[in-house]
Specification:
Blueprint (H helix, E strand, L loop, with lengths): L4 H8 L10 H12 L5 H14 L3 H12 L13 E5 L10 H10 L4 E5 L10 H7 L8 H11 L1 E5 H4 L1 H8 L1 H4 L5 H7 L7 E6 L4 H11 L4 E6 L13 E7 L2 E7 L16 H7 L6 H19 L3 H13 L11
Parallel strand pairs: 1-2, 1-4, 2-3, 4-5
Antiparallel strand pairs: 5-6, 6-7
Length: about 325
């Protein structure tokens, strides 16, 4: 029997006979998968069985630890302070969190952004936005560091920092379904930043990310149910920011930031990000999305309450350099 078969057998026996993998088993299974010791058929069977049954916290922790051992370049020496995975893409609103990232960079943070694209999903991904706005895309750790030095943030495609995990995400074209690879990419933290911020779409996944972080001894991780599943506050609804910090967990409640629902845009034109930043266009939804997203970061990094974080975030937004390309040109 192929060694990988034992793991398919364990999770695929059904409700009564099947079982969850231990954290160490999960690590070994994903290590085999990433290093080509599982056949393509086994990879597909394993990922889709997990999709139907859903992964346990221990399994996710084992998968993430295996993925972290197979990063293609050493991004741990670029001195990033914040890691954000951007894997959902946007469908209803633009990625306003990019403006929050720029504000954070002006405050001295070094933000490492990573993500991928799934063309069949017909969403707007951060890679597409960077291309449209002529923002640099880093292909290796050296260039990523230079962008952090120059503008305080960088974006790297997952294909360039973890090609094996990118290939698993790309299997959606064959399966018609996403797998746990998207979740693992969010948790990856390729830059080993001291602060890691995740956005998810589905209920209870935010808390699951925190439990995984605790098993992995990740010291400062937060997760929200973000707009479209990204690291972005939806100002039209209340939400909870879940935080894992030094072995402790915390749930922070945020209020609705917009009194009235806004009409979503007819199209997602990245140029509108520049127009809002430079105040060429007024957009109440965008302002509150940026301020709310900034506030969640401040709660996580500065250990302050929501009221103070929102006040500080508003001041940071108002004090920004309104030249969008000031640090880039």
């Amino acid at each position: 029997m192929n060694p990988f078969s034992q793991y398919i057998k364990a999770i695929g026996k059904g409700q009564r006979a099947g079982r969850y993998l231990t954290q160490s088993e999960a690590h070994d299974a994903f290590d085999q998968l990433l290093t080509g010791r599982a056949t393509p058929e086994q990879v597909g069977a394993f990922l889709m069985l997990l999709r139907v049954r859903e992964e346990s916290v221990e399994e996710l922790a084992g998968f993430v630890s295996a993925c972290r051992q197979h990063l293609s370049d050493d991004y741990s020496h670029i001195n990033a302070t914040v890691d954000m995975g951007c894997y959902s893409g946007k469908r209803r609103h633009l990625p306003w969190f990019l403006l929050a990232v720029k504000c954070m960079a002006e405050q001295g943070e070094r933000i490492f952004l990573h993500g991928t694209t799934e063309p069949e999903s017909k969403r707007l991904y951060l890679h597409d936005v960077c291309t449209a706005l002529s923002l640099p895309i880093s292909q290796d750790a050296q260039h990523a560091k230079s962008m952090l030095d120059k503008q305080g943030f960088c974006y790297v495609n997952l294909a360039d920092c973890h090609p094996q995990l990118h290939q698993l995400i790309a299997l959606r074209t064959l399966f018609g379904l996403r797998s746990c690879a998207n979740t693992l990419a969010r948790m990856l933290n390729p830059s080993q930043s001291p602060i890691s911020y995740h956005g998810v779409f589905h209920r209870e996944f935010d808390e699951r990310h925190i439990h995984v972080a605790q098993l992995l001894n990740d010291n400062n991780v937060s997760c929200i149910r973000g707009e479209g599943g990204e690291v972005e506050v939806n100002p039209e609804r209340e939400f909870i920011q879940h935080i894992a910090r030094n072995g402790e967990s915390q749930a922070v409640s945020f209020p609705i930031l917009l009194a009235q629902w806004q009409v979503k845009p007819r199209e997602l034109n990245p140029q509108a990000l520049v127009e809002v930043w430079t105040e060429t266009t007024e957009d109440a939804y965008a302002h509150q999305a940026v301020i709310g997203t900034l506030a969640t970061y401040l709660v996580q990094s500065n250990h302050i309450d929501v009221t103070e974080a929102l006040a500080q975030a508003k001041n940071i937004w108002l004090a920004r350099n309104r030249d969008f390309y000031a640090s880039i040109n």
